[in-house]
Amino acid sequence: MKKTSLSFSIVFFAVILSFVFFSQSAFAQISGSDRDNGYGMLEILKDSIKKNYYDPKYKGVDLDFVFSQAKELMKNANTRDELMVILAQTTLAFDDSHTFFVPPSRSANVDYGWRLSMFGNDCFVSGIKPKSDAEAKGLKVGDKVLAIDGFKPTRENLWQMYYRYYSIKPSSRVRFMVQSPNDAKSHIIDVDTKIVRTSNAISYEDIFNRIIKKGWDQEEDRYIEVGKELLIWKMSTFSTSEKHIDDMMKKASNFNSLIIDLRNNGGGYVDAMKRLIGYFSDKDIKIGDEKSKKETKPVTAKTRGNNIYKGKLTILVGNDSASASEIFARIIQLEKRGKVMGDKTAGAVMESRYYPMETGVGSVLYFGASVTIADLIMTDGNSLEKVGVKPDEIALPSGEDLATSKDTVLSKAAKEFGVDISPEKAGTFFPIKWNN
After folding, report:
1. What is the spatial distance between Cα 230 and Cα 271, in angstroms, rounded to a whole number?
2. Contact 191, 134 (CB under 8 A)
3. How far is the C-alpha of 18 from the C-alpha of 16, rounded, in Å?
């Protein structure tokens, strides 16, 4: 039985057509069978959206027109990449955070060696992989990113860039225009990508589970115990078991204060989210109304009764906190159960399901799609989609904070519980663990 997920990753999402078309391509020219496969994929994608999309009116989108236009574009496509771009672009018409095309995999692993994040309205380098070309070329954590291959990253389009680089059209080299902290001048850095060919194409069901549900460069949950007063739980994903939620909350019961750090948490399983919500109320909580294609039904989190957590609570969120993370944070606000601190969240809150697909005769082409199956209307009558959660207190790091590995946000949250943790010390708690 497939678990329904509320998840989001900046790796996979809709794409700006011009951004992809005018980027350099290193992949093969199109053949007749490639174009036929493209037509087949387009029809299968259309059928899946038509059958499964939560809104029978497709949010006002003319489904037949959009897909017929895509077919016309395919007639003039010159490369396989352009076919994939057209398929990806077609899903953009729905302006939906959880409906997107997952292309056939390439027999290669792409490792860029850098991580970018939005803080407020600015994009910064938030991670550099040791021994990567990014490190060798001098790209540094804390650098403000002014442009990526000539395009300015924003809160609205950074995910589009990641979709292009990691899924639709990987690049062997990426050009950054950056400005280092305390430096008035900008400079250009060209970073080469590590591309490792593999003997077998990666299953995109595996890719979906690894990236969409668990998050990019997935890290395991970690925690820090600060004396007997404070537990800091770095919760990396809601794609986890209810038992894990129970184990962590049992540990939290020994502390007077709890910080749940949901920064970089892209969501996960609905059941895990409901389980965690149940630990913060002595009564069942209505989360909202789930609006699907055929019905609207209430979504409720059952109280954990005698096992609820009664201590003080702060939730940390950021621009890449999404889906289940956003819903959990908003419930804490609506129930006035704790404080939400950090940056405004992603506003990517829909319920989706991954549908594996295939086409071709003899040589089978595997691909897929994530399709939104429901929207969630919160108890205040609003959806968080495209809106996000505004923290009770905005707290953002500066480029210099990032460059010197200071976590000023976590330090500030701890201080409000009477626990003195310096920004320098807080910055050592949860370093990035890069995938090999």
Report:
1. 26
2. yes
3. 6
The CA distances from residue 98 to 45, 138, 287, 386, in Å, are: 14, 35, 20, 12
CA–CA gap between residue 261 and residue 270 (Å, rounded): 18
Q: Which residues neighbour 212 within 8 Å (Cβ) at sequence distance 6 or greater?
A: 5, 7, 8, 9, 11, 12, 354, 370
Question: What does pLDDT average to in each consecutive run of 10 residues of the chain (436 residues)?
Answer: 43 35 48 89 97 95 96 93 92 89 81 93 96 97 97 89 83 96 94 82 50 50 95 94 97 98 92 97 97 95 98 97 95 98 94 88 83 95 96 98 98 98 97 80
Q: Name the DSSP letter for residue 186.
A: -
Residues with Cβ < 8 Å from 18, sequence gap 6 or more? none
Amino acid, res. 270: V
β 285-292/267-269 pair status: unpaired
Question: Is residue 415 within 8 Å of residue 426, measured between CB atoms?
Answer: no
Alpha-helical segments (H) within 188-261: 204-207, 242-252
Give CA–CA dist 155/171, Å, rounded.
Answer: 22
Instruction: Tell me the sheet residues that pair with 257.
Output: 230, 312
Angstrom CA distances, 137 to 151, 182, 238, 317, stand at 20, 20, 36, 31
State both tokens at 73: 């574009």
Return d(Cα 49, Cα 30) in angstroms, integer: 26
**Is the CB of residue 412 less than 8 Å from the CB of residue 341?**
yes
Nearest to 157 by CA among 354, 342, 17, 352: 17
Report the pLDDT value the prediction gives residue 207, as an integer from 0 to 100: 52
State how far the alpha carbon of 245 is from the alpha carbons of 121, 144, 214, 241, in Å: 33, 36, 15, 7
| Adjacency order of strands within the sheet including 393-394 | 222-226, 230-234, 257-261, 312-317, 339-342, 393-394
Distance in Å from the first CA to the final CA of the chain: 31
167, 11 Cβ separation under 8 angstroms = yes
The bridge status of strand 173-179 relative to strand 187-192 is antiparallel
Q: At 127, is the secondary structure helix, strand, or coil? A: strand
Place of tokens 């387009």: 42
What does the block give as tokens for 214? 């668990």
